[in-house]
Design a protein that fits this description.
The structure holds 2 protein chains of 2 kinds. By secondary structure, chain A is α/β, with parallel strands linked by helices. Chain A has 5 helices and 5 strands. In chain A, strands 2-1-3-4-5 form a 5-stranded parallel beta sheet, sandwiched between helices. The chains are: A alpha/beta, B mainly alpha.
Amino acid sequence: MKILVVDDYATMRRIVRNLLTQIGFTDVDEAGDGVSALQKLREAKYGLVISDWNMEPMTGLQLLKEIRADNKLNATPFIMVTAESKTENVVAAKEAGVNNYIVKPFNADTLKQKIQAVLGT
Amino acid sequence: MDKPASLSDDEYESIEEAITRTAKGRAFLRRYARRMQGAATEEVRGMVDQIQHMLRQQRELSQSVGHIDMLRRELLEMAGSIEQARREVAALQPPDSDSNKFLSATNELDAIVSSTERASLDILNSAERLMDLGNRLRASGADPILCTDIENEVMSIFTACSFQDLTGQRTSKVINALRYIEQRINAMIAIWGIEGVDASPMIGDFVDRRPDAHLLHGPQADGKGVSQGDVDAMFDTPPAAPKVQPPAPEPPPVVAPPASLEPEAAPAHHASQADIDSMFGAPVPLKPASQSDIDALFSAPAPVPLKPASQSDIDALFSAPAPAAPAAPPKPASQSDIDALFSAPASAAPPKPASQSDIDALFASPAPSAPSKSVDQSDIDAMFAAPAPAKAASPPVAPRPAPPPPVARSAPPPVAPKPAPPPAAARPMAPPPARPVPAAVAPRPVAAAAAKPPPAAPPAAAAKAAPAAAPKAALDQSAIDALFG
């Protein structure tokens, strides 16, 4: 299964990629913002999107809404990984259709469990 | 008009006598006297009122004078405060931009972000190499438990590296706040017209009185300070002493070129060893000096100590264990024992493995994934169990409590010591079997993520979406889990 990691901070993408590799997901692609992520999603099939929120020019929430509004993409599972931990953030993400939400800082266990919960494995 | 007729005393008395002869006349006189007394009283009372009024006015006038004095004093104090504020503002905005405190502070913060990012990358590179080494060890048949431990530690390093993300975000917020304050200060300067205001330090201002305070600038930004090459150049500069060309050495001393961090900054002229010696007052050797002689001149560690200490001597100084230990590879049995004691993964479990709660109870370990606040075991369970029930101890958020999941998910699959090869396409959406994850290797609190706005462009960070501006820990992961059921 191909996973798309979206974060404007390259080091964070690298960290998530390494964690995914360690927990068994080796097919990982990266995008630096919502726009490029959306482009990648429309060009290839991804089984999961793990995205940061605070990005420019398109935030993770905007990306999520674009995905949910796209008939071809709206079934793609989406996990938000962000430092935004206010209630309003979580509620907004949930209303937009996020499948799960991880607050930074997080660890490999949390990431693995959320992936399992979202994928139903 | 006729003048009123005057009345003599005799006439008055005769008229009075005539009137008092009758009762009506006497009554008239009494009533007349009363009326006259009342008029006089009224007149006196009016005069008293006037006097009182005048006295009141006088008093108010004197009070007003006091108020004016007070007002004058207040105005003087306000003027002094305004003048002090103007000087403070002028001190914040010195004429030369190099000593602009706001600019300096933001540059320092930018430098912090850059340096921590560089450090994170270096650590990540090393961690990836370690992971590669662990994989190679596993492939070469090394102890799988040991390999798993290495991988778990490397994963901890990965997650710990994400501290730079949050650090960068918070630093950017501080930078934006500084810029905001600077804008306000500039607005005040524009309003007040600070030019010409004395910006010298005032009483109460902090003044560094250390004798070398003027030399204490702290670390310099890139390109501001001197490089090591510049420093070397300053020490390599030939002194005033005459150069002495030593005779050709028999064996030319092989001196490895110094590993300069910035070779481009190295001086064009390289002093000879004799030049350097002459700078430090060493007599020019009559015969070529060997490298050991040069080392001795600079108090370098003697290549051959008079009484070399053995490793055991050094260990004894530090109460270290036997020196042979580092060379010996750790025995699997002892490592597993240690793992079992310190919450090793299940794969290394002894015959009777303790449960996580037992281990936690023994070590009172903090919650692994919520470093910002202490949580109890139920919080941890909520994080590790798929459907986390909302509980009272969790933050009272959950404006939309998610409905409980229709089917309780099973616990995460047991950790296998060595992963089986991933099934090719048995289940397209299923992830391949995971490598042993540090289920019991206490996942350390992860510093995490993402230094957002690049330090070079903080204004862009300020333009980010409003909700993204504050990484405030209002919810912990367990509360979010409760929201998602």
